[in-house]
Write a structure and sequence with these properties.
Helix content: over 70%
Number of helices: 53
Mean pLDDT: 81
Shape: globular
Number of strands: 0
CATH architecture of one domain: Alpha Horseshoe
Largest sheet: none
Low-confidence stretches: 194-198, 723-731
Radius of gyration: 35 Å
CATH class of one domain: Mainly Alpha
Distance between the termini: 96 Å
CATH superfamily of one domain: Leucine-rich Repeat Variant
Structural class: mainly alpha
Strand content: under 5%
Length: 995
């Protein structure tokens, strides 16, 4: 009777009358209080003739059991179990009802292990081995769901299940059963070892996966395999690659785009994890030959590729086979050595660029664009002009598809090839400005790419932007004031932010008209204006940070009030993000204006921290952010101890470090994602830099940190592809992987500066050969620069710790040849780092290496006759200063002849510390070597103004020497000062008074 009543109530839920639905809902609530509801619902599922009612009953049943299973008495549980199997095997049940029931069973399995529910295993065994195809199908469905719910308790049964799957995977006549079998294998994979049977099953799944239209979901088996059981798939990588290419790139007419996208994405993931295996098995050419036709494919007649359509909402990362082809090449660029990739990819690319077919040209340009990030150093140093030339030529192509691709490529090159790409400013800026002036504003996707290219190119120009600023701002302000299209306005506002980042105070003449335009957007409350409003807030924040305190400060209070008004009236997460950025920017200009509003601002921010809006469960960036937060906790606690040096604060810091440092070390070794590991290493470095010796009070931490750095440098961590051992003799590596080594190497000088040199010396002896090996002429410029730079910073650190002189002296015979060779390098950055290193060696080892000074001076003398790079010359001056500080004063004439520094202003600290020391010791020695004191006074005054503006932290060191020298040459200083503006004179006077 209860089952009949329930069926009647459930039927009323689908009636159009709201009153009937409300009455039925109330009756259901009352019925749910009766424990017998579970058995009644089971009866409805079995006996009803209406599939929708069965489905509703099964959903209700799951909700009831989920919340009350533990409260049910054993007899009712037993009766439910019997009814459950009867429900599940009813032949006329629709698939969606069976699916709901399998989810119900999965809920129960979370509460009851298979051992506590023996009938479940009996049912699964009987149904999956049944000769009836329907029984096998529903049994495998149920098995896939219960294992997905709670796979761990089923581990004792895995061997038995694998034997079952071995036969199921050969049954090509039951594709649905195959699908559930593969899903179950996907769930089991992280919990299995490397049994031969597992290999067998997965090899079979490769051949079966495309039979069913549910293959997209079944493809997840590869993702699980790649992440969890890499050793299983290594022998079969060629077979997997061929399969992915067949489905994703060759069977174009036979496969849905969704399946091709899933397959190609799986291939990209495989390349990411096992790039060296793909290289060693000579699969690169095979992959490129298959994906290039996708990259250059023409759309059907009368249609366009999505990125060429005039669709404001189009995302360049939307998944389609063409974009997947580009993603595969992008992944190769990030994870393979450029030299090895380019020998295969450049012939294909050049053939496309030389074609008259616009889609061939487009494919070639897209290829150059996606190579830019992963192969940046290779392109910058070896082929920048040859890559830029076809991109520039494409901007004047007669076909809009080609021009659009060229703009995208230029944006990518501008973003990733800094600072070298800036040297082409005179060629590219007029072209971009002319391009913007002639754009048809109707083609939004095209305009978007033009602004993308412009922004990325401008961002790092600095004051080089000055000649182009009037035209740029005229174009942007015209778009803001005259265009009817909101997207054009949004792009123009964003570009103004990029211009401000480059131009800094040069933007002052344009500040008022920009603010007038932005105010109209900032106060809007309409939904259609929201993107423009948020972009205006972002640009306002940029202006606050760049335009100068004097100019922006009058607006600071108004900006704070604007932010508060917006968050009070508009509920939009992106807008709140922008207001937080605005508050942060204003705090750098006029912090006092925030004080009255701190309670309101911090309340909003705390609510944001507690909110789970937009949050989903673990992602790479979430892990990385979590490690970053751990580092911030350590730095904050260290600062608290410094501010209040109590024992309680000290112990709290040590307790925190005891947890955090081992966590960092373990996850550097075990995390699969390179970017996460880079983030951990960067955070660990920042903790060591801030907390210094506190990190190593526990001596085990020194060993753990040193060994994990060694493991990264030896490429022995999980995120590094271990298929290529050092014994392979391969010195070239992907630039993306080289970044990982750099993050690890940056930790060595930080550790060296935090502990006594003798404690670190045994570990340093193990690490140095790994660093020095990257200085070979066969290594890339980035590797050579990293090597000599790291060596230099290690020597600089040794100069600051106890026992450092002796350790530096012992190392000098090994390091001097490396640094001297680096001074002769063809690349200016390598020479710069090597000169810096020689100076650091002289300072750290002191008298121990005085016998090597003639060698160093000979090298420096040879450099001075031919060196043209200003940064290298400045570092040479600093190296001479370090020799002087080590009581080698005979090099003073060579030093002062090249002062003041021209490019590397950071080294002024070294230079003027040295001159101050000498001047205090022997004024005449300094004066005798400064042949033109009037010119030198002039240089010092202008340098003082420069330091006040850009390097205030160096000012105090400089002013010591400035004051002493000005007293001896008062007339020369007075003559120079009177030639300055009143404002400049006032600034210098205030700086001298403050010192």
């Amino acid at each position: 009777t209860m089952a009949e009543d329930l069926e009647h109530i459930l039927s009323q839920l689908s009636q159009p009358d709201n009153a009937v639905i409300q009455q039925a809902t109330a009756q259901l609530k009352q019925a749910f209080k009766d424990p017998a509801i579970v058995l009644a619902l089971c009866t409805v599922v079995i006996g009803s003739t209406n599939p929708e009612i069965r489905q509703s009953a099964s959903v209700m049943l799951r909700l009831r059991v989920k919340n009350h299973w533990k409260k049910m008495n054993p007899n009712d549980k037993e009766r439910f179990s019997l009814l459950f199997y009867k429900m599940f095997l009813v032949l006329f049940l629709r698939h969606f009802v069976q699916h709901s029931l399998s989810q119900l069973c999965a809920v129960i399995v979370k509460h009851e292990t298979p051992d506590c529910w023996p009938a479940l295993m009996q049912f699964l065994t009987g149904s999956t081995k049944s000769s009836n195809p329907h029984d096998r199908q529903v049994g495998l469905l149920l098995l896939s769901k219960v294992l997905e719910s709670n796979p761990e308790p089923f581990k004792p049964h895995y061997t038995q299940l694998l034997q079952l799957f071995s036969s199921v995977l050969q049954d090509h006549n039951n594709p649905t059963a195959l699908y559930y079998c593969i899903l179950t294998l996907t769930t089991m994979t992280p919990y299995m070892g490397t049994e031969e049977l597992v290999r067998h099953c997965h090899r079979k799944s490769i051949h079966c996966i495309r039979i069913d239209d549910q293959a997209c979901e079944a493809m997840e088996v590869f993702i699980e395999l790649f992440e969890s059981e890499v050793s299983i798939i290594v022998p079969h990588i060629a077979e997997i690659v061929d399969f992915c290419l067949e489905v994703g790139a060759k069977l174009l007419a036979l496969c849905f785009d969704s399946l091709r996208v899933k397959t190609l994405s799986s291939l990209a993931f495989l390349i990411k994890l096992k790039s060296k295996t793909v290289l060693k098995q000579k699969l690169v050419s095979r992959i490129l030959q298959a994906v290039f036709p996708l990259l250059v494919a023409e759309p059907p007649p009368g249609e366009q590729d999505p990125e060429d359509q005039d669709d404001n909402d189009y995302n360049m990362e939307n998944n389609n086979p063409k974009n997947c082809a580009a993603q595969i090449i992008d992944t190769m660029a990030l994870h393979m050595p450029p030299e090895k990739l380019f020998q295969h990819i450049m012939p294909l690319t050049q053939k496309c660029l030389a074609s008259e077919n616009p889609y061939q040209k487009k494919g070639g340009l897209i290829c150059l664009a996606v190579l830019a990030e992963g192969c940046a150093d290779h392109i910058r140093t070896k082929m920048l002009s040859s890559v830029l030339l076809p991109v520039c030529q494409s901007l004047s192509d007669s076909n809009e598809v080609v021009r659009s691709a060229g703009l995208f490529a230029l944006g990518q090159l501008s973003e990733h090839l800094q600072p070298d790409v800036s040297q082409y400013c005179a060629d590219l800026m007029p072209m971009l400005l002319n391009y913007l002036s002639s754009l048809s504003q109707a083609k939004i996707s095209h305009v978007t790419k033009a602004f993308y290219a412009l922004e990325n190119f401008m961002e790092n120009l600095g004051k080089i932007i000055d000649p182009y600023l009037p035209t740029l701002m005229e174009t942007m302000l015209s778009a803001l004031n005259n265009s009817e299209n909101l997207k054009i306005k949004e792009l123009s506002v964003s570009a103004i932010g990029a211009i401000a980042n480059a131009a800094m105070e040069l933007m002052v003449p344009y500040f008022s008209p920009v603010i007038i335009s932005l105010k109209g957007f900032l106060t809007s409350e309409t939904e259609e204006m929201r993107p423009l409003q948020t972009q205006s807030l972002d640009t306002l924040s940029v202006l606050a940070r760049t335009i100068g305190k004097d100019v922006f400060s009058p607006l600071a209070s108004e900006c704070v009030q604007l932010g508060l008004n917006l968050t009070d009236t508009i509920d939009d997460p992106d807008l709140r993000r922008c207001t937080y950025s605005l508050y942060s920017a204003v705090s750098t200009v006029n912090p006092d204006c925030l004080t009255p509003h701190l309670t309101a601002i911090t309340t909003i921010m705390l609510l944001a921290l507690k909110s789970n809006e937009g949050i989903t469960y673990p992602h790479d960036d979430v892990r990385q952010a979590a490690f970053g937060a751990m580092g911030q906790f350590c730095r904050a606690q260290h600062q608290a101890w410094k501010d209040s040096p109590t024992e309680a604060n000290h112990q709290a810091l040590l307790k925190l470090l005891e947890v955090v440092i081992p966590c960092f070390v373990e996850n550097v070794r075990k995390d699969h994602e390179r970017q996460v590991v880079m983030g951990i290493l960067e955070t660990m470095n920042s903790v060591i830099k801030s907390c210094k010796e506190a990190v190593f009070i526990n001596p085990a931490h020194l060993k753990e940190v040193s060994h994990v750095i060694r493991d990264v440098l030896k490429k022995k961590t999980v995120c590094q592809d271990g298929s290529c051992d050092e014994s392979d003799g391969e010195e070239q590596q992907a630039e993306y992987d080289a970044m990982l080594l750099e993050f690890a190497g940056e930790g060595i000088p930080l550790v060296a500066a935090a502990v006594p040199a003798d404690n670190f010396a045994p570990f340093l002896n193990d690490l140095l050969p790994l660093i020095m090996s990257k200085a070979k002429s066969s290594c890339t410029v980035a590797e050579r620069s990293f090597s000599v730079g790291t060596i230099s910073e290690i020597l600089q650190a040794l100069a600051t710790v106890s026992g450092g002189r002796q350790v530096a002296g012992r190392l000098s015979t090994r390091l001097l040849p490396v640094l001297v060779a680096g001074v002769k390098d063809s690349d200016a950055e390598v020479r710069n780092n090597s000169v810096f290193g020689l100076g650091c060696l002289a300072e750290a080892a002191g008298p121990i290496v005085k016998s090597d000074y003639p060698t160093m001076l000979s090298v420096f003398s040879n450099m001075l006759t031919k060196e043209s790079d200003l940064r290298v010359i400045d570092n040479l001056c600093a190296a001479l200063c370090r020799m002087i500080l080590s009581n080698f004063e005979s090099v003073l004439p060579a030093l002062v002849a090249r002062l003041p520094l021209k490019a590397d202003m950071e080294e002024n600290k070294t230079v003027y510390s040295c001159l101050t020391m000498l001047y205090n010791k022997s004024p005449q020695l300094v004066l005798h070597n400064i042949i033109h004191p009037g010119f030198f006074c002039q240089s010092l005054i202008f340098l003082c103004l420069e330091l006040m503006q850009s390097f205030s932290d160096l000012l105090s060191q400089f002013l010591m020497f400035y004051t002493l020298f000005s007293q001896q040459h008062e007339a020369d200083f007075h003559a120079t000062l009177t030639s300055l503006s009143e404002e400049q004179q006032a600034k210098i006077g205030a700086a001298i008074s403050a010192s």
